[in-house]
Amino acid sequence: MAEVKNVPLHVAIIMDGNGRWAKKRFLPRTAGHAAGSKIVENICELAFNKGVKYLTVYAFSTENWKRPDSEVKTIMNLLREYLKDCIKKSTKNNMRIRVIGERSRLDEDIQNQIKELEEASKNNTGLNFTVALNYGGRDDILRAARKAAHDYKDGKIDIDAFEEKDFAAYLDTKDIPDPDLLIRTSGEFRISNYMMWQLAYSEIYVTDVLWPDFNEAELDKALAYFAARDRRFGGIKTDNK
Ligand code: IPE
Ligand code: IPE
Ligand code: MG
Fold first, then answer.
1. Distance from Cα 105 to the centre of ligand 1, integer Å
2. What is the 3-state secondary structure (H, E, C) of the chain?
3. Residues contacting residue 6 through CB under 8 Å, at least 6 positions apart
4. What is the pLDDT of residue 5?
5. For the chain, which has fewer Cβ within 10 Å, the N-terminal or C-terminal residue?
């Protein structure tokens, strides 16, 4: 494939379709989650080799607790395994790992794993890989508003000088740029409470491919779609001035 110019700095992915992937194979939904978690590492590597510097994946939403206990348990166990592997991998491939989302509802051992992983990889200079875990866009904004309100009470905020960038500094994503491209697998045209604030001007690419089937060819299609977009951010095309 020809080299793609105009690579998105930050790609966000809604990894959807694990359940449908399993159903098509007459397997339990949990088999879909296992297959889906296996391909994440490969997609990270491919994306980084193609010039993507930030990759953020939606692993578990604040609404996913509504699923049957057994499914939630399986997802959390896969996560434990994944985080354990991640420690080794991030050392090998220099990946910096962050987790966004509300942590206190996660089991304590998972919270500890996250802390360890973030600390161990904080000086790595490769891909900035972020996992959205018990993440909700509204929850992110609400928690940010609460923190800001506390700071206001403590006299740390001048309300009249408080700007978008000041609010964004309270969000879980404070250290990472807004996504340039959002990819959603499995054909649904919705945000499902992903980064509501941060996705304001992201290009959106939806594919029917189910997450466990997502591969290099599919990633190339998404990147080619992005490269052809004319991003105006509310302005006009620069050559139309
Ligand atoms: C995405 O796959 C993974 C999570 C939400 C944890 P789904 O489990 O939503 O798969 P479908 O949408 O039912 O096919
Ligand atoms: C979004 O997928 C959340 C994740 C991929 C983690 P869902 O499958 O939960 O979203 P809906 O229910 O189709 O909107
Ligand atoms: Mg789904």
1. 20
2. CCCCCCCCCEEEEECCCHHHHHHHCCCCHHHHHHHHHHHHHHHHHHHHHCCCCEEEEEEEECCHHHCCHHHHHHHHHHHHHHHHHHHHHHHHHCCEEEEECCCCCCCHHHHHHHHHHHHHCCCCCCCEEEEEEEECHHHHHHHHHHHHHHHHHCCCCCHHHCCHHHHHCCCCCCCCCCCCEEEECCCCCCCCCCCCCCCCCCEEEECCCCHHHCCHHHHHHHHHHHHCCCCCCCCCCHHHC
3. 226, 227
4. 79
5. C
pLDDT digits (tens, 9 = 90+) for 47-77: 999 999 999 999 999 999 999 999 999 999 9
Instruction: Kindly list the catalytic residues.
Output: 16, 64
Which atom of ligand 2 sits closest to the CA of residue 63? 9
Write down the residue that tokens 């409470």 correspond to: 193
Residue with tokens 């980064």: 195
How confident is the model at residue 2, as a pLDDT? Answer: 52
219-228 pLDDT tens trace: 999 999 999 9
Handedness of CA 61, 66, 68, 17 (dihedral sign): negative
Residue type present at position 165: K
Which of 219, 165, 168 is CA-nearest to residue 57?
A: 219
Give the distance, in angstroms, between the CA of residue 169 and the centroid of all CA atoms in the same chain: 18
What residue type is 54 in one-letter code? Answer: Y
